[in-house]
Structures are given as C-alpha cells and as structure tokens.
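Fold it.
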Amino acid sequence: MPYRYRLVDVFTETPLEGNPLAVFPDARGLADATMQKIAKEMNLSETTFVLPATRPNCAACVRIFTPAREMLFAGHPTIGTSFVLLDEGIVPNTTAQFALDEKIGAVPIRVERGARPRIWLTTPPIQIGGSYDRAVCARALGLEPSDLLDIPPELASAGNPLIFVPLRSKAAVDRAWIDLAGLRSIKNGQQDATCVFVFTPTPDGAYSRMFAPEHGVVEDPATGSATGPLAAYMMRHKLVLSADGTRFFSEQGTKMGRRSILYVQVNGEQGVNGIDVGGYVTPLAEATMKI
C-alpha cells in the first residue's frame, strides 16, 4: 500500500532550519507497530499519523511517535500537522480555530492570519514535580555548579516530563551535553521517560536546548511541549526579563544548526487562563512510502 507523507520544518520561516516533521495525512490501515517502525525509519524527532477523530468537536486524530515510543502530546508535531491539515484542505484553510484529538485529549489550535499563518496551540494542563540537586545536574551536563543559576532544577510536564535546568549564560547552554548515564544519575531511580531542558534567560525570553536520549532523540531542535512549562517555570522564579511578561519567545536548536523560534502568549495572571505556544511552518517536500 502507498502512503503519502509531507515533510515540513516547524518553528521556522527558513527551509532546512527549525524542527523537521514527517506527517502522514491519511494513516488509515496502518497498525500501531507499523507506525512505530515508520517513525524509526524516518529517524526524526517525531512523525505524525492522521486518522479520523474519536473525540467530538475535533478535526482529526493525531498519533505522535518518536523513533522509540508514542507520545501523549508534543508541540512541534501538533503545530506542523495543523499546518498540513490546513494546507491540504482537510481542515478548511479559512478556519480560525479547531482542535486536534491527541492521546492527552483535545488540543485547541488557533490560526493567526498574516503574510503566512502563525499557528498556536494551547498547552495542556501543566504539572509541577520535584526538584533536583544542582551539583548532580551540573556534573551530568558536563558543567560546573557555578554555570547554574541559584534556582533548583525542577520537573514539569504538559504530557512530556522535562527536567528544567536554568543556566547563567548562552555559552553554558552551548557547552551542555547529556547521555543516558548522565540522565539516569539525575533521575536517581525515577522510572518515567524524561527529557532535560537547559536554558538561560534573555531580554526576549530564553535561549534553550533539549536532550531526550530515552526517546531516541539525542537533541531536539524545537520542543513545543516544553515551552509552556518553561514559561511557567520562568514566571514562577521571576526569570522573565522582557518588559511585557505575557509575550516572549524561546530560541532553540541554534547550537545544532537548526535555529527555531517558539512564541509564547501567557493568558491571564501567571497563565491561569492557559499558555499558548505558536510558530511558523515551512513546507519542504512530499513523497510516498510503500508498505
């Protein structure tokens, strides 16, 4: 059977930057195990498969796979798949708002019109976990404790658990690196698959990197599921430096040559009415896979 897919770069207006994503606009007939094998074959941070929605008032069901496992929710696949649905007319391209049916639930999507559309998602409810030892985090990341801000690294999740580690400078962010052994030393027996997100505050928001070795992803160029929790963490610890603390952005992927810009809109005091994450999508290629 032939299955057509689209390749798009997410959180960028420049081809071959941002975070690449493969989208299968019609995945009917594919078994779960086959979807996982395809995601491993594509070897991107994530691959998505579009199916008929199972929840009411949703435009489509979206299954999201890394090379190693299926995700409850992920940001760049949600934004990129929304673009493809609009571009293909599966969702009428005049639609301003719709929702996608994902494992975590219905994810609201908003389309901001302009010379090219900027697509926004509303981050699912954010859960805050425990804190981690600064010295252990520094050692696991190949850094000195003095490279970290005097704020405890913390676990937060909007469906994808991440350990947020605040650093003092862009140089420290660029030096950071972690492997499976280092991640396990930080987790200290914690079982859930977890990512590590390092960042430093900037006048415009944050300069960031994200490592996900347990998901089969050495480094992710842009992590939309992390950006809402990042904004919550930064607000909670008074790390937002921009004059307007309700709108800022995270620059991610620059160190690996895939510069990505993830926009943030904080709705209500401390995001009590939700945190939206948005960005642009650049179409790159389409092809057919024969299974």
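The longest helix spans residues 75-87.
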